[in-house]
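Entry 14. Structure prediction run on the chain below.
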Amino acid sequence: MATDRLLDGRLKIRHLVLVTTIADEGTLVRAAETLHISQPVVTRGLREIEELLGVPLFERLPRGVVPTQYGYPFIERARSVLAELRTAGEEVRLLQSGQLGTVTVGTHLAGSNLLLPRAIAALKAEHPRLTVIVREGTPDTLQQLLLAGDLDLTVGRLSSTVPVRLEQERLHQEPIRLVARAGHPVHTGSRKSLADLVTFPWIFPVAQTALRAELEAVFFHEGLPLPADRVECTSMLTLRNLLISTDVIAALPMFIAVDDAELRILDTPLSSIRRSVGVTMLKDRAPSAPAAAILTHLRREGARLAELEREYARSEPRIAG
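Output returned:
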């Protein structure tokens, strides 16, 4: 028998269901009852597939049927094919419901410390087979990746202006605070003004980022030069390691410091810098089911963080001002 005969359209899924059911039930009568069809239909279907294969699949006995030497391997393969089809159908169902698939999220400083990790954890607890890919970059880079279709959405600080194809959704407000390591000399003594801090080493955002421009505006408003001893960096891993191992000072989203036992917020307010944190998406493309699923959790976690920020503002009025 040419193998191509199994692929020319004559072999049907119902044939595979039929032979596996006959093998399970042991008689054509019981197979017919299980499949809710008549015995003649079972007999005719079995004859069709045996003629197609050119070999008998079952040996007829007085009290039923048993697979032949040809039947055993074919029936096992038929079971495998049916199992794969059931799996494929289930995967399609899970994809449609957002429980399976991949969502690619871009992130930068704001949102990367609490908002996104909490949303991912909640999402994975609900849909463990959904894969989340996180890509870190500057806001401008992530915006271009989003426009190119390489990201489903971005999480972080919202921009004052975005291309017409993008839309933003605010999830919470997060102040920017000056941060240094626990034990840093700046934490001792009286309250420090920005002028008192200029002589320390600093970490600044890289040029052409919104936070960099805002920090420069704060120093200019205070009549101060930018710190001469500074590193320019947006990598959170590098930034945090420098913070906890040296005497640098950095301006960071508040929750990064609040949630880190090795960092402390300085009591030097930056009241003019306050960022809206949220998601940015393509306006003309509906989110995929996986993207919609993580968006649901981002909104929930954003609401929780908004309440946390309000509580922190009530307990630390000087810093929050």
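The first strand starts at residue 58 and ends at 61.
Filed with the rest of this week's runs.
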